[in-house]
């Protein structure tokens, strides 16, 4: 299973670990707030070549049913995928304003 | 004491604005004291960051982050959230760079002004707005601060933008 | 459409939700390597961007067993982890380190050299972003000639860093390490193949992967991969391996792309004079003379 | 000239004026700005110095020792992990009596990792033989940079000097700072002259071994050197006041302690808020006061005992804990009082660890607590979870 | 089985019986014999462990931390410069709550260079979060080696443990030592079990960062762990007595302190001579006694105050000086008394620096001195040269 | 009868009255080098035999300016000394380090690597006695395969040290240092010539000189020079230089003398089995294959 | 001048240096006590080739008037010179007994 | 308490003798305590070294070097000096390995005995002499100590030499 955002985000005195060891891959904050632009997949164009998946530094692209899909919780909008996709199936759009 | 909370993204110059305000406030004045500091932490480019300016007539000794601000200045409207109101002192104001109106906040198209002056960032524009709105420092002192703390070749454009913004709100 | 490289590595993500800058090349290197090594990888990361962005309790971004080491202690902690797990009876695991250029070539070289000398069964990956980035872009031993950093300012008197880049790959090779390789995140398949190969060799393995840092290099976040290719294409970096005492070049650009164009894309090189660029070109040519003379060749791209 | 500067920048300005001849630089947050600024000064020619990009903090101080052994004025800066990584060299520099100046940005130490300001780093190195000063604000930081070499290089002292700035809240916080002129600075601080150096006319063997028959004499003289700083600091501050018009107060700074019941003893940048709180309480009729420790070494035994002995209670507020005991400042203060036979009640407040904020309310609580007879070791923010 | 062994050899025997799984070894006088003996045990098969020839002490402890993080029992040993060179890792191991055991051969620290025994090395690292024990003789050294893991690994404690042996006078001095059998040792010390480790079923992220919001909680828990050792040490000593028939006395060991006027507080191997001197003085009608501090961390505040409060005067005799103040043990003892409101007169004797001998006559002089109302900091062997 | 070598160096003695064991090879190396460099040499020595035997106040055995560094700090202190003297306006001096094998290849490699990287104007001489001798003969990274030390005991289960010797010379060369060389105190003229050459080159110079330790090697004190020759003659050590990016062999034994005979003269190798010796022979041959392939040749003896 | 043994050997409190710096080449103890055998030069044979001078680890051999001479204060009797001298001009003799 | 000071050169085994004596003294005895230690320091092979043994019926707590010895045992007569007498307790004796007589010391040709037993060093011979002279330990216990602390293959020769030497002085 892909890492995901957890419900429990804050830790009381007793919940803070006794040592510096804790569950691997425990996520409490998303990165979506980092984006000012977002990648959008044109599923019509996407051929599922997985180049974007391989090069995304954040690992937020997966291929589902032969098409790239993005986990917008953690995509930072860097735009690498859009440049990597040779056939232009990814466009960068303004986040919101 | 007047406290200003600045919100921006790494690289947008929120902290520079915070610093310029502090410098402007204390220029040539003996009984004026200021602190300015960024939010400290491992934030990276792209992540939302905060900055703080505190202005007072006696030395500012509380170096902790502002918990109740007189002004919250937001450089990027994607960072606005209604929760921010809890950080506002009574009578305090939120100023946002935005093309559209936001309930409970003053919005300005700072990007427009910045673009007019060929500036890649809106920080001095937002500073100008704050100067105009708050009157905490004069536009002249703010311009002097820019002269003292920004690279020479971008001073003029920033000063112009600042004055333009300050005027915008005094009008 | 199936992608052989993608199929050769895990579909799981092991470095996720981290707070690296958008477009960070280092995080791409770590992510890709862990997808090769899988869930039985135990990662050791010293102080540096990758640990700083990945381990802020309670936001913990590695899905495999991972631990931060002291800045100087990547390799020595790897040694301890590997020995400890072996002593506990574990066999099926890979102890892998991810250290930055500063953590590798400067403060960490004592421990790295010691681990290679003992031939400890570990993989050490240096993600090279060519400066101390986590502390705000200071010169390291791997900062290239001419680069502006916050401790090698470029002004009228000094044009940035005056020293060439230390050659960690050849230093590792001079230790007669079982396996060493250079790579670039711009050629991810090559990097992945090298991590794969390393995971099958017993003893110490060293992989040096160029991982551009948009923040420190002064490029747009979406340029990371392109610039990581261009540094290879213009000949300022090379893809190679060292194994059984022999050097092998893995990619011979037919013609180098323009060095100046590579440099001038980056904020850190903006100030370079023609003379500076001539020096860089010359040193590239000298390097390639050496490579052509002493390296074998086997294309891997 | 007045400028709006951070603590780090102010310190770098002070160092520029002090004309170090060799600077060894290694980055670590929150110190790095200092060596960045110095690299710019060397580049633009406003400072003439050998600027060495070392490969670690151990090398940073080792290089500074080498430079000092060559007779040059040497500077380096560090923080936290870096201070610990160079620990061996701290003792080395002090034992060799090399008057190096180092800025330390006070920061928490791992584990857990944390880049924020507490004082466990420098306080853990109290025994190293260095003079340890703690600045309260950016102006004092700059002034310490200037005074440091004059104190350290004084023949009676010949001891390295560590100037501590609270990480972030001081190092990264901008305030107005008065920067002296080059002429003033040069008139205040003469060039470094020593015979503890390489000498081609009179070759020396240095940093040697000394066996059981003489070793303790070297150590005694080292102790004498640090203790001599007590006098030299006050002389230097007097000269500083004459030149620059700012008067400092020696090893401690007292506030409202003439007629006082409750005293907070503390150090570093939190002192201002303590004073403001004391003011507030005075307004409410509570006789509150503050002792700010400016120098932890040499330790102000008498200064502290003299003030505290007449109070009803004191609290030591520090960003430090010596695990398995109490805060180190508290231990030192208690010893001072014990020796002075002062029976006044004291307690210890551990705050600001890992950068946790100490608020005005926290400080007010401390005063209330000690007025109510509090004792023992208290972690600000933790209550009743367990016995400490 | 009785054997005639040096302190180092006895400690190595104790470690063999404790079955460490990873040993990281780096030479330094006077510790080296320990890792040499262990290498022989690994070679001859009497100990099964990964023996790692590391390249420095920083790596020695870093490697041990890695091994402990893997869930293995880890051992290393060092001294002096080595202890300082690994300082960063000391704090790291403690903050991560890794129950590593390390032997430290107490030795002087440079400059000047000196290989002889004083205690400035370990005492300078009191704040590091390690339990610190000081052995008096070879038998106690061996016994501490065995007890150390049981104390350190106790879930309530989870804290690294430093066993200190005075350089040469203990490490290199041969005496008769009783070596327990393998069966006895195994029944006393169970294998190490922990969840503070790499776990392939339940992957962990370890040695992470913690910001201002939680950092102080980690530090508080670290403090709790060291303090919990107080109880666990006494439980462990009780169990040790049941298995091996030798009973130890917790954080301190008192001698003739029931009806006492003059007490020397000290630590390490000099305690025996202090006791012999006390005996002699008792014979002369002087009510002399000795408190030997066995553990500097956790610090025996109550134990010391309880005994000293009824005396007429005490002296702290230590091989240490915190430059610019006084001996660190003295400071700690004074704080204990201050907190307990004990007004008894005390003074500090700094002896044995750089291996200088402390003679029976020196000790007798201390008793005479304090009976005459001596105060302050006194360097044995130096008198009247200057004020300290 | 005049001796050209003797005439080429100072008649003064700069390392005199020291407490090294009788017949100590390390002290011979230090003595000879200082007679080349003369009274304006500033020596930096880390913890190790040479500082331990030379600097016991008030018995101070160096006649030139000399200082002990921390064990890890030879090169970093050299850097500081050189920078400090330069800052003070001195021009005519040589900053020279003398560090043991442990102080060089293990704990000191971080600082050494850093100094080479900066190209500091210093000479770094490693006197290699192949173990930590000052602390009583423990294995270092330069202890050769098979050697018995007090931490690599030779018994029924393990035959002494199981790892080969780290190649510091090639590691220094991989840093692209201006000058590096190997030498042996058995061929003192060659060593002296190399120190002389180094003193005339600007930048960092590294000289690695084999310096037998009768105490640690288990030989008679009067055998030091002979054994230092034999290790070269039997091919287990070689005399070479690295300069301008090229390796040069300085001495090609016509025929190697017997390795076993070299080994069996020494207490530390007494226990070696035929199999162990076969391994040593093989690795020598492999090394020489590499040398013959990649080194130039210029006889210096 | 060759380093030599000094008169002043012990240092009082005030004479101990303030720092760790002292006159270079200051010698207070000799090494002659280390020897159980001593090298003796046969001046008749010695041709002054200086090989022994070059290889003596203690530097105690000098050539005077074309012949090797030894500083017995500091010679440790290692015997290297005797082995180096190809023409056998140095013999090792028992120190005294 | 009996205190023995041993003098030799590094490599001659003076400390081994000191240790063997301590071990022998405490073998199987409950109320017998011993300390043995070398002189500590950076001495090198060839340099004169000292070692110490202290024997007592109660635990030996004074770990410092002997200032007044009951016996001074010298393994190499080049190390003898008349000044050593100042280190001798009243009635104490100096025992020297020497072929010739020395005023104020007992001399024995220990080398001769060692050679008889094919031993390269005289340390166990000197131990035997001390055993015989002092009676502090029995030759049997000393032999047991050799069995416990010396490598098997040299035990016999050393025991024989020790017994021979012990006999030499009891005769
Ligand atoms: C002993 C020590 N010194 C300094 C630091 C501060 N520090 C943390 S990360 C870092 C920079 C790391 O640079 P690099 O290894 O290149 O990794 P990057 O940040 O570029 O990924 C520094 C200097 C530290 N943590 N420990
Ligand atoms: C940090 C530190 N660790 C350990 C030591 C102890 N030490 C001093 S000298 C030495 C051995 C030196 O070996 P090497 O460098 O080979 O020189 P050699 O003694 O063989 O001449 C050691 C381990 C020290 N002084 N400092
Ligand atoms: S690179 Fe383009 S085509 Fe390929 S999977 Fe990604 S979006 Fe689809
Ligand atoms: S924009 Fe960047 S982070 Fe987002 S999916 Fe594309 S490559 Fe990944
Ligand atoms: S600063 Fe550079 S290396 Fe660090 S996280 Fe950002 S992009 Fe990556
Ligand atoms: S032990 Fe070896 S290296 Fe050290 S002084 Fe003796 S002979 Fe020289
Ligand atoms: S080696 Fe022989 S011949 Fe040559 S100088 Fe020496 S003694 Fe004379
Ligand atoms: S015996 Fe050794 S020390 Fe003496 S002169 Fe000959 S070589 Fe030199
Ligand atoms: Mg980097
Ligand atoms: Mg060595």
Topology:
The complex is a heterooctamer, with 2 copies of chain A (97 residues), 2 copies of chain B (171 residues), 2 copies of chain C (301 residues) and 2 copies of chain D (388 residues).
Chain A: E1 21-23, E2 37-41, H1 51-55, E3 61-64, E4 67-70, H2 80-84, E5 90-94
Chain C: H1 4-8, H2 25-37, E1 41-46, H3 49-52, E2 55-57, E3 59-60, E4 66-69, H4 74-87, E5 94-100, H5 101-106, H6 109-118, E6 123-128, H7 168-174, E7 179-184, H8 188-199, E8 205-210, H9 214-217, H10 224-233, E9 240-243, E10 246-249, H11 259-264, H12 274-294, E11 296-297
Parallel strand pairs in C: 1-4, 1-5, 5-6, 6-8, 7-8, 10-11
Antiparallel strand pairs in C: 2-3, 7-9, 9-10
Chain D: E1 2-6, H1 7-18, E2 22-25, H2 32-44, E3 50-53, H3 57-69, E4 74-78, H4 80-85, H5 87-95, E5 101-106, H6 120-123, E6 131-134, H7 138-153, E7 161-166, E8 174-178, H8 182-188, E9 204-206, E10 209-210, H9 215-244, E11 252-255, E12 262-266, H10 271-283, E13 288-293, E14 295-297, H11 301-308, E15 313-318, H12 328-340, E16 345-350, H13 360-371, E17 376-379
Parallel strand pairs in D: 2-3, 2-4, 4-5, 5-7, 6-7, 12-13, 12-15, 15-16, 16-17
Antiparallel strand pairs in D: 1-8, 6-14, 11-13
Helix pairs in contact in D: 1-2, 1-7, 3-5, 7-9, 8-9, 11-12
Residues 20-21, 24, 26, 49, 53, 129, 133, 213-216 of chain F line the site of one iron/sulfur cluster.
Task: Give a structural overview.
The complex is a heterooctamer, with 2 copies of chain A (97 residues), 2 copies of chain B (171 residues), 2 copies of chain C (301 residues) and 2 copies of chain D (388 residues). With 97 residues, chain A is α+β, with helices and mostly antiparallel strands. In chain A, 10% of the residues lie in helices and 22% in strands. In chain A, a hairpin with a 2-residue loop joins β3 and β4. The N and C termini of chain A lie far apart (33 Å). Chain B is α/β, with parallel strands linked by helices. Chain B has one domain (2-170): Pyruvate-ferredoxin oxidoreductase, PFOR, domain III (Pyruvate-ferredoxin Oxidoreductase, domain 3, 3-Layer(aba) Sandwich). Chain B is 36% helix and 25% strand. In chain B, strands 2-3-1-4-5-6 form a 6-stranded mixed beta sheet, covered by helices on one side. Chain C has helices at residues 4-8, 25-37, 49-52, 74-87, 101-106, 109-118, 168-174, 188-199, 214-217, 224-233, 259-264, 274-294; strands spanning 41-46, 55-57, 59-60, 66-69, 94-100, 123-128, 179-184, 205-210, 240-243, 246-249, 296-297. In chain C, α2 packs across α8 and α4 runs parallel beside α6. Chain C is globular and about 60 Å long. The mean pLDDT of chain C is 97. Chain D has 388 residues and is α/β, with parallel strands linked by helices. Chain D is built from 13 helices and 17 strands. Chain D has helices at residues 7-18, 32-44, 57-69, 80-85, 87-95, 120-123, 138-153, 182-188, 215-244, 271-283, 301-308, 328-340, 360-371; strands at 2-6, 22-25, 50-53, 74-78, 101-106, 131-134, 161-166, 174-178, 204-206, 209-210, 252-255, 262-266, 288-293, 295-297, 313-318, 345-350, 376-379. Chain D has a 7-stranded mixed beta sheet, with helices on both faces. A 6-stranded mixed beta sheet of chain D has the order 11-13-12-15-16-17, sandwiched between helices. In chain D, β16, α13 (360-371) and β17 form a beta-alpha-beta unit. The longest helix of chain D is centred in the middle third of the chain and has 30 residues, at 215-244. Chain D is globular and about 65 Å long. In chain D, 73% of the residues are buried. The model of chain D has no long low-confidence stretch (mean pLDDT 97). Classes of the chains: A alpha+beta (97), B alpha/beta (171), C alpha/beta (301), D alpha/beta (388). β9 (204-206) of chain D pairs parallel with β4 of chain F, so a sheet runs across the interface. The site of one iron/sulfur cluster (SF4) has 14 residues of chain A, from α1. One magnesium ion is lined by residues 100-102, 129, 131-133, 140 of chain F.
């Amino acid at each position: 299973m892909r890492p995901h955002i957890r419900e429990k985000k804050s830790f009381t005195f007793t919940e803070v670990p006794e040592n510096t060891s804790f569950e691997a891959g425990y996520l409490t904050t998303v990165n979506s707030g980092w984006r000012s632009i977002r990648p959008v997949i044109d599923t019509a164009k996407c051929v599922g070549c997985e180049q974007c998946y391989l090069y995304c530094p954040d690992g937020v692209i997966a291929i589902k049913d032969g098409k790239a899909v993005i986990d917008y919780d953690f995509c930072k909008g860097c735009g690498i995928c859009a440049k990597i996709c040779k056939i232009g199936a990814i466009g960068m759009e303004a986040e919101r304003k | 004491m007047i406290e200003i909370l600045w919100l921006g993204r790494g690289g947008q110059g929120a902290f520079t604005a915070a610093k310029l305000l502090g410098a402007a406030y204390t220029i040539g004045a003996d009984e004026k004291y200021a602190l300015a500091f960024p939010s400290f932490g491992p934030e990276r480019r792209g992540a939302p960051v905060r900055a703080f300016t505190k202005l007072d007539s006696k030395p500012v000794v509380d170096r902790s982050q502002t918990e109740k601000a007189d002004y919250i200045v937001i450089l990027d409207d994607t960072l606005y959230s209604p929760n921010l109101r809890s950080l506002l002192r009574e009578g305090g104001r939120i100023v946002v760079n935005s093309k559209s109106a936001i309930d409970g906040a003053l919005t300005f198209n700072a990007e427009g002004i910045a673009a007019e002056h060929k500036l890649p960032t809106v920080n001095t524009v937002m500073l100008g707005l704050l100067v105009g709105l708050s009157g905490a420092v004069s536009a002249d002192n703010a311009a002097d601060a820019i002269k003292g703390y920004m690279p020479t070749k971008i001073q003029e454009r920033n000063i112009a933008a600042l004055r333009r913004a300050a005027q915008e709100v005094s009008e | 459409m199936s992608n052989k490289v993608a199929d050769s590595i895990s579909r799981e993500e092991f470095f996720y939700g981290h707070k690296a800058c958008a477009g960070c090349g280092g995080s791409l290197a770590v992510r890709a390597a862990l997808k090769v090594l899988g869930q039985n990888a135990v990662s050791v990361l010293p102080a540096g961007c990758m640990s700083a962005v990945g381990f802020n309790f309670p936001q913990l971004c590695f899905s495999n067993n991972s631990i931060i080491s002291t800045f100087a202690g990547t390799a020595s902690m790897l040694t301890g982890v590997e020995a400890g797990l072996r002593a506990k009876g574990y066999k099926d695991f890979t102890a892998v380190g991810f250290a930055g250029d500063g953590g590798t070539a400067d403060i960490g070289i004592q421990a790295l050299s010691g681990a290679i000398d003992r031939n400890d069964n570990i993989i050490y990956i240096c993600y090279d972003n060519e400066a101390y980035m986590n502390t705000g872009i200071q010169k390291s031993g791997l900062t290239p000639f001419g680069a502006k950093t916050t401790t090698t300012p470029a002004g009228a008197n000094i044009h940035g860093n005056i020293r060439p880049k230390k050659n960690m790959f050849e230093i590792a090779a001079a230790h007669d390490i079982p396996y060493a390789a250079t790579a670039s995140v711009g050629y991810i398949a090559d990097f992945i193949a090298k991590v794969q190969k390393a995971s099958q060799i017993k003893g110490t393995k060293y992989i040096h992967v160029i991982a551009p840092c948009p923040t420190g290099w002064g490029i747009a976040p979406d340029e990371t991969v392109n610039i990581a290719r261009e540094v290879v294409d213009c000949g300022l970096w090379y893809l190679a391996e060292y194994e059984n005492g022999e050097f092998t070049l893995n990619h011979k650009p037919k013609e180098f792309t323009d060095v100046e164009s590579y440099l001038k894309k980056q904020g850190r090189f903006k100030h370079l004079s023609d003379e500076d660029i001539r020096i860089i070109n010359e040193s590239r040519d000298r390097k390639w003379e050496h490579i052509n003379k002493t390296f074998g060749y086997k294309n891997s791209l | 000239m007045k400028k709006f500067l951070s603590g780090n920048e102010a310190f770098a300005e002070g160092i520029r004026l002090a004309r170090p001849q060799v600077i060894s630089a290694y980055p670590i947050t929150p110190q790095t700005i200092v060596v960045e600024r110095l690299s710019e000064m060397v580049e633009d020619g406003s400072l003439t110095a050998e600027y060495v990009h070392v490969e670690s903090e151990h090398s940073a101080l080792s290089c500074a020792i080498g430079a000092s052994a060559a007779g040059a004025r040497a500077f380096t800066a560090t923080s936290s992990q870096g201070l610990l990584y160079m620990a061996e060299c701290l003792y080395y520099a002090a034992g060799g009596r090399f008057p190096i100046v180092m800025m330390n940005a006070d920061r928490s130490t791992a584990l857990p990792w944390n880049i924020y300001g507490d004082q466990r780093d420098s306080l853990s190195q109290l025994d190293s033989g260095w003079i340890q000063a703690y600045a309260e604000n950016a102006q004092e930081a700059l002034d310490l940079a200037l005074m440091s070499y004059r104190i350290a290089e004084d023949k009676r002292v010949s001891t390295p000097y560590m100037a501590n700035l609270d990480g972030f809240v001081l190092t990264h916080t901008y305030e107005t700072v008065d920067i002296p002129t080059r002429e003033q600075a040069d008139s205040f601080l003469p060039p470094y002259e020593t015979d503890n150096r390489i000498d081609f006319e009179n070759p020396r063997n240095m940093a040697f071994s000394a066996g059981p028959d003489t070793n303790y004499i070297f150590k005694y003289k080292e102790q004498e050197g640090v203790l001599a700083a007590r006098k030299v600091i006050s002389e230097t501050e007097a000269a500083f006041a004459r030149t620059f018009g700012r008067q400092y107060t020696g090893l401690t700074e007292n506030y409202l302690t003439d007629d006082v019941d409750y005293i907070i003893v503390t150090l570093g940048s939190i002192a201002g808020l303590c004073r403001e709180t004391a003011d507030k309480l005075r307004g409410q009729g509570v006789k509150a006061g503050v002792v700010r420790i400016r120098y932890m070494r040499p330790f102000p035994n008498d200064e502290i005992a003299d003030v505290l002995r007449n109070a009803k209670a004191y609290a030591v507020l520090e960003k430090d804990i010596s695990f398995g005991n109490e805060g180190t400042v508290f231990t030192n203060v208690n010893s001072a009082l014990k020796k002075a036979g002062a029976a006044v009640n004291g307690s210890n407040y551990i705050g600001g660890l890992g950068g946790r904020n100490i608020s005005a309310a926290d400080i007010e609580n401390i005063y209330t607590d000690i007025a109510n007879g509090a004792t023992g070791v208290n972690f600000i923010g933790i209550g009743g979870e367990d016995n400490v």
